[in-house]
Design a protein that fits this description.
Strand 8 (about 235-240), helix 8 (about 245-255) and strand 9 form a beta-alpha-beta unit. The protein starts with a helix and ends in a 16-residue tail after the last helix. Helix content is about 40%, strand content about 20%. It is α/β, with parallel strands linked by helices. The radius of gyration is 37 Å and the shape is elongated. The protein has helices at about 5-25, 70-85, 100-110, 125-135, 160-170, 185-200, 220-230, 245-255, 280-295, 320-335, 365-370; strands at about 55-60, 85-90, 115-120, 140, 150-155, 175-180, 210-215, 235-240, 255-260, 275-280, 300-305, 310-315, 345-350, 355. The protein has two domains: about 55-155 and about 280-305, 3-Layer(aba) Sandwich (Rossmann fold), CATH 3.40.50; about 160-280 and about 310-370, Rossmann fold (3-Layer(aba) Sandwich).
């Protein structure tokens, strides 16, 4: 290559380098890198879980009484199963129907419970008083008749179970004498004694019923003494409106027959047991809690029976005649359908005077005021 050609190539290279430098000097830069993608929006924090509804129960007896309080506590357990962690329940057992009831119920409200159940008639006045001081708490009173803006009543038609038991008693008695161990002389209990007798008389008009009052809901020694007295007086089949299994156990011991009350008591006297008139509180407690959770609670009371699945006669003994079992089944079906009326005239009192005229049907107001014995029940209503 000649010197001239070399010089030409060097000149071209130099000019190219100068041009590149000029471009840089004029601010020509490489494009900036693409911006990083915006970060994804943070997931919204979950809404805080609502605090569980606190629910408390005041029980008149021990949860192990095998009857009334045991049935209520089964209802409380059904509530927990239904609502899970949406609720928290607690209870105080063996709360007397006295000033202690007000103290216990007031403490329940102060502890933050927003739904409180008082499970016996004698809590009515104490609960009404506490309800006036805690307007943001809902109070439910079993078997009573007074209410307030934040307090309502609930009850079960135990007389339906008593009547079905009576049908069996009337068919099975050999002495035509039945016995009832009774607790407190209020309409609820008197109505059950009469209904038991009406059921027995529907299949055996010769039946008479003797009553011994113990003036307590739960007192096994007194219940045992009363049951023994009735058997010694000629009763061969016993019913009770008390809360323990003592009456059925006494019948078992003395070779007689009897019924469980409020809960299935078969295990307490399997040879004596003719059937148990039971209460299922679960459906009502679930409804009441749903009302409170959903803001639909009102102070309108409820009185549930066979129709609502609250009352039944269960574990009927194998030796009860088939036709008697069929009659009980027929009555149960009629009560469920609303076509069978237990308190339908003619019904007369002990003095022979007509209480309900032929074909007349007692309404709930009438039933709520029953304070008399019908014909066939011996003795006098205490205090009358």
């Amino acid at each position: 290559m000649t010197d001239l050609n070399k010089r030409s190539l060097l000149k071209v290279a130099a000019l190219s380098a100068m041009a590149a430098a000029a471009l840089v000097g004029c601010g020509k830069e490489e494009p900036p890198p693409a911006p990083a993608p915006a970060p994804a929006p943070a997931a919204a924090a979950p809404a805080p879980k609502p605090e569980p509804l606190k629910i408390a129960f005041a029980y008149v007896g021990p949860v192990g009484d095998g009857g009334w309080t045991f049935a209520h506590d089964n209802g409380r357990k059904a509530l927990e199963k239904e609502f899970g962690d949406r609720i928290v329940t607690s209870f105080v057992e063996s709360v007397p129907e006295s000033a202690d009831a007000e103290r216990v119920i007031r403490d329940m409200a102060q502890q933050g419970n927003k739904l409180i159940f008082g499970t016996t008639f004698g809590y009515m006045e104490p609960m009404l008083k506490v309800a006036g001081d805690f307007k943001d708490v809902k109070f439910e009173h079993a078997t009573g008749y007074k209410n307030a803006d934040n307090m309502r009543t609930y009850d079960s038609r135990t007389y339906e179970g008593a009547y079905m038991a009576g049908v069996i008693a009337g068919a099975m008695t050999k002495t035509n004498t039945l016995g009832v161990v009774a607790s407190i002389p209020i309409p609820e209990v008197i109505r059950n004694i009469n209904s038991f007798t009406l059921g027995a008389q529907s299949v055996n008009p010769k039946v008479k019923t003797k009553v011994v009052w113990v003036n307590e809901w739960f007192n096994p020694p007194k219940e045992t003494e009363a049951a023994t007295s009735l058997i010694n007086g000629g009763a061969d089949i016993l019913m009770q409106n008390t809360d323990s299994s003592a009456v059925l156990q006494t019948a078992e011991k003395m070779g007689k027959r009897g019924f469980g009350w409020d809960s299935d008591m078969t295990a307490y006297g399997p040879k004596a047991h003719l059937g148990s008139a039971v209460i299922n509180w679960g459906p009502y407690y679930i409804k009441a809690t749903k009302d409170a959770l959903e803001g639909t609670w009102s102070n309108t009371g409820s009185w549930w029976g066979v129709k609502e699945g609250a009352i039944d006669l269960v574990s009927v003994a194998a030796d009860v005649p088939a036709e008697t079992k069929a009659k009980v089944d027929e009555i149960r079906a009629g009560l469920k359908a609303g076509t069978y009326n237990i308190w339908k005239g003619p019904i007369v009192g002990q003095d022979g005077k007509e209480i309900l005229a032929k074909d007349a049907v007692a309404d709930d107001k009438f039933l709520g005021g029953v304070n008399f014995y019908i014909k066939g029940v011996e003795g006098k209503v205490p205090g009358k």
